[in-house]
From TrEMBL:
It comes from the Bacteria. Belongs to the LytR/CpsA/Psr (LCP) family. This is LytR family transcriptional regulator. It comes from Eisenbergiella massiliensis. Keywords: Membrane, Transmembrane, Transmembrane helix. The chain crosses the membrane at residues 32-53. Residues 129-287 form the Cell envelope-related transcriptional attenuator domain.
Length: 370
């Protein structure tokens, strides 16, 4: 269409006002269509970008697995009964199982600074992993499970000299593995390796190590956590009376989660019981807080940054946040079965291997129909 001059437009306005009005309408419509087109293009680019980042996040998470799959022993009698046995299958209790390699598993640690180095060696950091949990996300069932690992669990711990040179591997409390790093990423990586090995080389896709000092911040940001006090902790906080139901706030939350009776032979087990109870209540309160304020997760993340070390990257967070809404917490925290002993004045927890094997099968494997 030939473009009209200003003079021709003015002439048309006088001689043929109806035609001039139609022309203005067509021009306005064209501008609106142009704007809509631009907006649509922006939305497509943004949505495509989000999908790409989300996909990149998932791929990045899965690529970080510490191993391809657990290394479980298999029942040869079961294997002999299967005509076409496949690599990676496990025979157990007369059935065949296959590892669910879509599962994402993350190691979450609560770190506490100690005034003295561990008795097992010189160490490098003066911090230990006093709270150890595995967060298991199963995309098939859309369920999140938590596994609590007793910090006194006797496991293989790699010992390093002050310069960071590997010395040897010893059997000791798994919490001490954190001391043989730098108190940051290296320590977390050593813990990731030790926990993976404890669980038969279980693939772990990322870690988060948070200082115990962050407990009041985490607790109060979501509005406090209600519990029924399991043990008498009035020695450190007069509010923490056994059997008392209260909403934990500030330092009360800190002591409830962190305190350990050093004079009790079951001090670590008592603390783990309280931590488990606290987490179960925390999840419910956090869900309510996040629903009331969609920006709450970001707020909490920013507040935790000074206290936290993690290898979970931005694109991975994007993926996890975008999928988390579809998952439901099972409500159960799986505590490892085993036996606590006192050895040379220190607590030692020995995991029941049969129970651990069963737990790994239950949470990380699918039965193969025969």
């Amino acid at each position: 269409m030939e473009k009209m001059s200003k003079a021709d437009l003015e002439k048309e306005e006088i001689l043929n006002p109806e035609k001039a009005e139609k022309r203005r309408r067509r021009k306005k419509k064209a501008r609106i269509m142009a704007v809509v087109t631009v907006i649509c293009m922006i939305l497509v680019v943004c949505c495509t970008g989000f999908i790409v980042v989300r996909a990149m996040g998932k791929n990045s998470i899965m690529s970080k697995a510490t191993s391809p799959s657990p290394s479980l022993s298999t029942d040869l009698n079961v294997m002999d009964k299967v005509e076409q046995w496949q690599d990676g299958w496990v025979g157990y209790n007369g059935k065949v199982y296959e590892y669910n390699d879509d599962i994402m598993t993350f190691l979450v640690m609560g770190i506490d600074k100690k005034s003295t180095s561990p008795q097992t060696g010189s160490g490098i950091s003066n911090s230990q992993a006093d709270a150890i949990y595995l967060v298991v996300m199963n995309p098939h069932t859309k369920k999140v499970d938590l596994i609590a690992v007793n910090r006194d669990t006797i496991a293989d711990v790699d010992v390093y000299s002050q310069p960071g040179a590997y010395a040897n591997t010893i059997k000791t409390q798994i919490a001490l593995q954190y001391t043989y790093g730098d108190g940051k990423a290296k320590s977390a990586q050593l813990m990731e390796k030790a926990v993976s090995k404890l669980f038969y080389q279980l693939p772990i896709h990322g870690y988060v190590a948070i200082s115990m000092d962050a407990i009041p911040t985490i607790n109060d940001t979501i509005g406090g956590v209600e519990v029924q006090c399991l043990q008498d902790l009035t020695e450190v906080d007069p509010l923490l009376k056994q059997g008392e139901t209260l909403k934990l706030e500030g330092q009360s939350a800190f002591w409830y989660v962190k305190y350990k009776d050093m004079n009790a032979s079951h001090g670590s087990s008592d603390r783990l019981e309280r931590q488990t109870q606290y987490i179960q209540s925390f999840v419910g309160q956090a869900k309510s807080a996040f629903k009331a304020d969609v920006a709450m997760p970001l707020t909490l993340f920013k507040k935790l940054s000074p206290y936290m070390v993690t290898d979970i990257k931005a694109d991975e967070v994007t993926y996890l946040v975008s999928t988390a809404a579809a998952y439901k917490f099972s409500g159960e925290v799986h505590n490892l079965a085993g036996e606590s002993k006192t050895e040379e004045g220190n607590e030692a927890f020995y995991v029941d291997d049969n129970a651990l094997y069963q737990l790994v099968i239950d949470l990380f494997y699918n039965e193969v129909p025969q």
